[in-house]
Sequence to fold (391 residues):
Amino acid sequence: MDRRKFLRNGLALGCSAAASPVLTQMAFASAPWDTRIVVLILRGAMDGLDVVQPYGDPAYAALRPSLGLGPAGGALDLDGFYALHPALDRLMPLWHAGQLGFAHAVSTPYRDKRSHFDGQDLLEAGGDTVGGLRDGWLNRLMTATPAVTAEAAYAIGRDHMLILSGDAPVSRWSPEAQLTLTPQAKRLLERVYEGDPLFEQASTEAVMIAESLAAEEESPMSDAAARRGTVALAKFAASRLRDESRIASFSLAGWDTHVRQAQSLPRALHGLADVILTLQQELGPVWDKTAVIALTEFGRTARENGDRGTDHGTGGVMLTAGGAIRGGRVIGAWPGLGEGDLYADRDLMPTRDVRALAGWVLRSLIGTEASVLETSVFPGVDLGEDPGFLS
Fold:
């Protein structure tokens, strides 16, 4: 029996779990460098003005009478102007260690229509027009990199993530149907992969994740169950990054906060903190050469709405974490929130293309040429000034 074919097809005997609403899929790719990159796609449009609160802007409090009240409302002061949402308090040690940072007032070139589908398409494709590219920027990075092999790329989830779709081949495993492996079937998996340096650990981790998510499907999805599923995915990502993989990308949902944002946003932030801290713990010494970036399709309105939430906006925040980054900073030209400062009189005005910042992570961490980034990976982007992401 062909072992690789068994991994792709054999788990269909029952080796998949119901999809969690906090994730859609995860992908892995190996490449000829020793640093690691984790790209988190935050689906639903994270409110950067609440996550990293510009409480030092005199117009901020009037725009958000019940949201983002800065240190006076429990947020954690970062630098006298910005404060971190209290749901991310567990990440403050990383901030103080210089392993957590943010870029504010950033966005893709997407404007005005504020469609999740189109915004995510542009974010993952990495181009400057919706529908202009049908492959993803991480896939194009691999295509432009020599010595990337077919078996070195893995995708996990129900659907293809556009960010890793393209000519560079990616092997896939989908935790879809309910896991009903018998003890005998699990023992068969163990025997088939026993001693295989590439697939033994991956098979064990896959079964563990599927069993965990299947158990959660037996009862309504609670916050705790959703977080356990997220942690399991982060652990699996770390297990591959400790070994052959060099890039991991997966998505977290739950960021569309139209109503009662003060109750819904913390749930998503707790999950994000779980992912980052799990990666730190599970990667061990590899964490020191890892950069994590979290991106979202667009920001949210500067003004809170009548339902104490926020609607689809434009400018937002990019998060960076990891032992390889130079954190402890909120970078970016702040545009202001006063009269005449907002984009279309409703949104935070973007002052930098988030694709350029992602490009600088790739350039700084793995040495990708600027010309490759500006023409192949992110066509049409101007990298601009180096933000100094690396420590």
Notes: The chain is about 35% helix and 15% strand. Confidence is low (pLDDT under 50) at residues 1-24, 174-179, 216-220.
